[in-house]
């Protein structure tokens, strides 16, 4: 299992692995927002938590179609499916690798982008906290979407269409935590709901992902 | 470890392709799979490897004894030869990749990135992967594609050594490898369509 | 007939031929009954009920809004059940019924959304409000879109049936989660709508007689839409079965049977 994780991390960091693309996208989207809505700092600080959450979500989504498709094309998935490692474990590891290479950098970059959008000071902690808890769910849900569309030639757009509705609860609770935190309101309830969603998806969704992957490998 | 196949029927894309297949693969033996293109040799190998369910029949002889090599080698171009092999060795829980490097003369290439290898070299690396799985039953789908005559000999030697250690192999190929084994021609097992008035049959 | 025997008899309809024969026999009844109910319900509702004292004549859109909204949800539930049946028992008719139902669900959801907007304009003064109930329907609409798109994208029919079934199961859980999330996110303007409390919808709880005046035509409309939904699903499933059979016959010709 660790071998698979290390391999995926190595692949991501080597040339052409696409590490940092999601991060760059996150940066660019955030920079574009003031151009679209105007530079008034009061407006920006109001919408900052939501914009940063949406930006992180889109950056995450962008990297999903490479998650399984490369392994599918070169035949690694066939070989992994016949290996002693259960496919459930394999997809969980791949989701973890995705989170480490995409989700975690987004979490770490978010406060700096928060400065650009004039995020209120109490909001920084809650923004990082909510992203830290929410992004693993986005990786796991995204892995399910990637497993559904892995065999398709032009699966990228379909992948977004399938995954985005599944992101709705995570986005709602996650952005709610960040928004409430920024305005100094109580954050416990949405934070617990967010953590619950993340825990439940990590525990259950890999079974669905492995099941659809087996169907696609047939 | 004997692989026993009884009255197997398989489908490709929902359409039955082969039926009534029965054979036995005993330790130390090899079976060469023959048949015209499109008859379902790849589908048969995938079914035996457990990647897709059979339509009918039984496959006895544990699935986790089988090492499968498809048309594509599952190599990562940005990893070196050693890294590629070491990865599969640790997934299959075996330790040493040296015998595999030796058998396919990959020692000089060990630190090259797989992406820089020629097609034949890649193929050799893909076949070397079979050795690091440590599994007794090999399923090989057209293993000699893009190999030169020398490399084909290398491959045949590796299979022979594997058989000598009590392993077995099922190989779909049209080349004569000079192996100790029988030929299984699946051309006669082409699935016959079900009667047209059977709605469910026509439906499938 | 024992329960087990009855259950077995039910599974017989999973045979495509038996399904087609039976659905062709009962379809005319469903068409006539549904159209009769809808016509009676709508005419009664539109022309023979008084205007609501608060909402005026706009309240009458309820006769389209509530039945379509109900069917939008019930359609997804039906797809969930048929998907489960396909995954467990591998009956092709079941998977095809789910496929046949999805576009009907999309249309019902759209009608519910549009009538909701038309009703909301004079009531709340805006065409669209991010009210939890409206938002949930919008999300449901997105789930329908994804489901249909996945069916269309995959060539092999059995693979498509398997994948869409799993998507339907996972999607149902997430749709339910979204419903709670949306409720939490915005406590809205929408009336606590339930047909069993039709009086509450029309704001006439205090006058039982008047609420009954709205209630009966509404019930007839709902029954009409349920029958219409069944008729459409049976009809479309029949089409899907025939399309599938043509595909199977063509595949058979290709392999030279």
TrEMBL record, chain A:
Primary location class: membrane
Keywords for this protein: Cell inner membrane, Cell membrane, Cytochrome c-type biogenesis, Membrane, Transmembrane, Transmembrane helix, Transport
Annotated transmembrane regions: 12-37, 43-64, 96-117, 123-150, 157-178, 190-213
InterPro entries: Cyt_c_biogenesis_CcmB, Cyt_c_CcmB_bac
Function: Required for the export of heme to the periplasm for the biogenesis of c-type cytochromes.
Similarity section: Belongs to the CcmB/CycW/HelB family.
The protein's name in its UniProt record: Heme exporter protein B
Protein species of origin: Ruegeria haliotis
GN (gene name): ccmB
UniProtKB/TrEMBL annotation, chain B:
Pfam families: ABC_tran
Recorded GO MF terms: ATP binding
Record InterPro entries: AAA+_ATPase, ABC_transporter-like_ATP-bd, ABC_transporter-like_CS, ABC_transptr_haem_export_CcmA, P-loop_NTPase
DNA repair among keywords: no
Membrane-spanning intervals of the chain: none
Record key words, sorted: ATP-binding, Cytochrome c-type biogenesis, Membrane, Nucleotide-binding, Translocase, Transport
The keyword Oxidoreductase belongs to this UniProt entry's keyword annotation: no
NCBIfam families: ccmA
Name of the protein in its database record: Heme ABC exporter ATP-binding protein CcmA
Taxonomic source organism: Ruegeria haliotis
Source lineage: Bacteria, Pseudomonadati, Pseudomonadota, Alphaproteobacteria, Rhodobacterales
UniProtKB/TrEMBL annotation, chain C:
Superkingdom, taxonomy of origin: Bacteria
Domain Cytochrome c assembly protein intervals: 20-190
Keyword annotations: Cell inner membrane, Cell membrane, Cytochrome c-type biogenesis, Membrane, Transmembrane, Transmembrane helix, Transport
Membrane topology: Multi-pass membrane protein
Principal cellular location given in the protein's record: membrane
Cited Pfam families: Cytochrom_C_asm (PF01578)
Identification of the protein by name: Heme exporter protein C
Role, per record: Required for the export of heme to the periplasm for the biogenesis of c-type cytochromes.
Family indicated by similarity: Belongs to the CcmC/CycZ/HelC family.
């Amino acid at each position: 299992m660790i071998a698979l994780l290390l391999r995926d991390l190595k692949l991501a960091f080597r040339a052409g692995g696409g590490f940092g693309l999601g991060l760059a996208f996150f940066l660019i989207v955030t920079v574009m927002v003031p151009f679209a809505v105007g530079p008034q700092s009061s407006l920006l600080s109001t919408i900052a938590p939501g914009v940063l959450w949406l930006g992180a979500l889109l950056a995450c989504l962008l990297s999903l179609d490479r998650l399984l498709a490369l392994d599918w094309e070169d035949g690694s998935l066939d070989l992994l499916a016949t290996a002693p490692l259960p496919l459930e474990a394999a997809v969980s590891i791949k989701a973890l690798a995705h989170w480490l290479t995409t989700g975690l950098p987004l979490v770490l970059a978010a406060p700096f982008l928060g400065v650009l959008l004039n995020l209120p000071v109490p909001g920084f902690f809650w923004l990082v906290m909510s992203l830290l808890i929410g992004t693993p769910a986005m990786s796991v849900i995204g892995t399910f979407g990637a497993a559904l569309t892995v065999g398709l030639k032009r699966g990228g757009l379909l992948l977004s269409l399938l995954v985005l509705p599944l992101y709705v609860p995570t986005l709602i609770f996650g952005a709610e935590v960040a928004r409430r935190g920024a305005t100094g309101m109580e954050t416990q309830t949405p934070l617990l709901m967010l953590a619950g969603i993340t825990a439940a998806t990590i525990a259950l969704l890999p079974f669905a992902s492995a099941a659809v992957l087996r169907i696609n490998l047939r | 470890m004997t692989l026993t196949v009884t009255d197997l029927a398989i489908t490709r894309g929902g359409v039955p392709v082969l039926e009534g297949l029965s054979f036995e693969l005993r330790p130390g033996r090899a079976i060469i799979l023959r048949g015209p293109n499109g008859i379902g040799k790849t589908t048969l190998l995938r079914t035996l490897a457990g990647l897709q369910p059979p339509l009918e029949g039984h496959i006895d002889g544990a699935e986790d004894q089988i090492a499968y090599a498809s048309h594509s080698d599952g190599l990562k171009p940005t990893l070196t030869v050693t890294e590629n092999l070491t990865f599969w060795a640790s997934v299959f829980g075996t330790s040493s990749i040296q015998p595999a490097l030796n058998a396919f003369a990959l020692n000089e290439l060990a630190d090259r990135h797989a992406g820089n290898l020629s097609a034949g070299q890649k193929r050799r690396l893909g076949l070397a992967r079979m050795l690091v799985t440590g599994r007794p039953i090999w399923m090989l789908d057209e293993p000699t594609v893009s190999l030169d005559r020398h490399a084909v000999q290398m491959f045949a030697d590796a299979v022979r050594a594997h058989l000598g250690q009590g392993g077995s192999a099922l190989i779909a190929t049209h080349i004569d490898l000079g192996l100790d084994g029988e030929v299984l021609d699946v051309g006669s097992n082409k699935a016959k369509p079900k009667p047209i008035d059977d709605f469910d049959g026509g439906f499938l | 007939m024992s329960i087990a025997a009855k259950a077995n008899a039910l599974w017989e309809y999973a045979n495509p031929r038996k399904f087609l024969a039976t659905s062709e026999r009962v379809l005319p009844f469903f068409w006539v009954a549904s159209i009769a109910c809808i016509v009676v319900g709508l005419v009664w509702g539109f022309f023979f009920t008084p205007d609501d004292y608060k909402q005026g004549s706009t309240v009458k859109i309820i006769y389209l809004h509530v039945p379509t909204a109900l069917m939008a949800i019930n359609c997804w539930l039906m797809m969930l059940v048929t998907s489960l049946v396909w995954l467990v028992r591998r009956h092709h008719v079941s998977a095809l019924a789910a496929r046949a139902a999805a576009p009907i669900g999309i249309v019902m959801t759209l009608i519910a959304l549009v009538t909701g907007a038309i009703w909301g304009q004079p009531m709340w003064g805006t065409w669209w409000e991010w009210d939890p109930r409206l938002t949930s329907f919008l999300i449901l609409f997105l789930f329908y879109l994804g489901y249909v798109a996945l069916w269309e994208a995959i060539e092999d029919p059995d693979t498509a049936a398997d994948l869409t079934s799993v998507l339907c199961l996972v999607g149902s859980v997430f749709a339910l989660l979204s419903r709670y999330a949306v409720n939490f996110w915005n406590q809205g303007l929408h009336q606590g709508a339930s047909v069993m409390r039709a009086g509450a919808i029309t704001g006439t709880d205090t006058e039982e007689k008047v609420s009954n005046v709205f209630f009966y035509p509404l019930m007839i409309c709902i029954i009409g839409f349920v029958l219409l939904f069944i008729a459409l699903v049976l009809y479309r499933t029949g089409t899907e079965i025939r399309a599938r059979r043509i595909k199977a016959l063509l595949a058979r010709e290709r392999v030279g049977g």
